[in-house]
Write a structure and sequence with these properties.
The protein is about 20% helix and about 30% strand. The protein is an alpha+beta fold and about 220 residues long. It has one domain: Protein Transport Mog1p, Chain A (3-Layer(aba) Sandwich), CATH 3.40.1000.
């Protein structure tokens, strides 16, 4: 796996994503999202094993244990212990792509807007052997292999933590995918992604940049 070294530090904290004008996005790229999740889960010094996947020690996305949903105004706070928490509009709902859970066996949290085009995915791993930048580089390489264009990387701050951000645009699918990978203070490796139409994907990016926190 080649290593990308283009994670320049963003002095302003978050929001390193700079989107270009493009045709409206019509869908999302399931394949790259799945492969990035698998790459991160398998990227360890000892190789990929059944207990090294992202979220392998967490609660299922379908489970009520440890999960939280609280409303305030026109937004509600969603998330789960270890995965993290964020504020989403009240009309957003839980989303589960069956292909991710059935194909990979990974337990992820996903939320989407009413159109099902804006999707945020949260996941984590307790495998402390992988470096966050190496995991981000793996996602970068996979995005490149899958045909994403204008791939960029940046070092940003998320909830006071250093995060490696990768984003790219899939012209064939008209999808923008933005990924953050970082360690929290308890040694958990976090994976967050936002995907959707280029005309509105920044709504999801702002949700993550403005409201995400590891702890409730």
């Amino acid at each position: 796996m080649k290593t990308m070294n283009n994670f320049a530090e963003n002095k302003c904290g978050g929001r390193a994503v700079h989107l270009k004008a493009a045709d409206p996005v019509k869908g999302r790229t399931f394949l790259c999202l799945l492969l990035c999740l698998l790459l991160v889960s398998c990227f360890s010094l000892t190789g990929c094993s059944s207990d090294s996947g992202l979220g392998s020690s967490g609660q299922s996305a379908q489970s009520d244990a440890g999960s939280s949903t609280s409303k305030s105004g026109d937004v509600k706070r969603v998330g789960q212990e270890n995965y993290g928490f964020m504020d989403v509009p009240e009309d957003w709902t839980d989303f589960q792509d069956p292909d991710i859970s059935e194909t990979s066996g990974l337990e992820v949290l996903q939320y989407s807007d009413p159109t099902g085009k804006l999707i945020i995915t949260l996941n984590y791993s307790d495998n402390g052997q992988v470096e966050a930048q190496s995991a981000a580089s793996s996602c970068w390489a996979q995005m490149e292999e899958e045909g994403a264009e204008d791939i960029q990387g940046a070092t940003v701050e998320l909830d006071g933590l250093t995060a490696y951000q990768v984003y790219g645009y899939y012209t064939s699918d008209d999808v923008m995918l933005v990924i953050w990978i970082f360690y929290d203070n308890d040694g958990l490796l976090h994976y967050i992604s936002a995907e959707g139409p280029i005309s509105s994907v920044m709504d999801s990016v702002n949700i993550i940049e403005d409201t995400y926190a590891v702890s409730k």
